[in-house]
Design a protein that fits this description.
Helices cover about 40% and strands about 15% of the residues. It contains 14 helices and 13 strands.
Amino acid sequence: MRSDSLNIVIVGLTITSSWGNGHATTYRGLVRELTRLGHSVLFLERDVEWYASNRDMPHPPFGTTRLYENTADLKRRFAAEIRNADVVIVGSYVQDGVTIGDWICDSTEGMSAFYDIDTPVTLGRLRRGECDYLSKELIAEYKLYLSFTGGPTLRLLESEYGSPMARALYCSFDPEIYFPEAARIQWDLAYMGTYSDDRQPAVERLLLEPARRSPAHRFAVVGPQYPEGISWPKNVERICHLSPREHRHFYNGQRFTLNVTRKDMVEAGYSPSVRLFEAAACATPIISDPWRGLDELFKPGEEILIAHSSEDTLRFLDMEEDERKAMGQRARQCVMKHHTAKHRAAELENYIFEARGLALA
């Protein structure tokens, strides 16, 4: 055990079930890599029916995972662990998160932190007075605000909301799960994402209209909740759901993959989707809608393609095969160098030591 090893407690949405959320895979990679760095990690998850019925990792083989029934049960059974931890991290969307956060900030002898996997959504809810897992007062109480969104949002969290220290801790990918593999190419362009009103115009512009205009190309849209009234071109395959274990094969089965960003994330900028890193890890070239900060993660034209229109998509699909494969390999090299779960664990470790240094100064 390292002399500077930390006793970390995370109260998060879920680590045992990746169904219907992007939190579990993030926490799995982070906890595994933190333990590899020599830290002790206890993950506390509320035992709710939806995740209980869909647990694809009921007993994570890294760190320690414990379930609790409700907030009273959490306080009763884990008060000592919270009090004695070096760092306690509360995640976004944790049920009763304000009450839990207040209790942790008051009771822990270590450092409290908040991990926002949904930062633009969180800030929008706070502005509307609709956020039940975080309050403006708590932002000032948490010693460290870890955000899936970087850029100007970090300064906003410090200047307007009073965070003592806000830092970007982006999503990441697991290189043990996402990598190139020999697979039959099934689609020229595919997209994976749950339906949303604010994303659909871009899906229409960057995938469905190109499909109508180029019937020789093959397309796919994966995800639930798409309205029945959508007119799907004949060359667009609809898949309602793919389990996480099928994602690598899905990425490897397409010539290009499409990334489309939620409105809140576009407005905030610097909010990469985990799909970007997963697809790039598979060396699948990405066509993305534009947003601020994307060019700081990937080099446009070399590691990623930016599409504004249907014409852009169709032009990219005609790319020479050697050039397409080279772009995919450059994107993979980029994410392997900067965006694995191991990188995020090291970043978190540095942020914690930085925040503790500020606290001691």
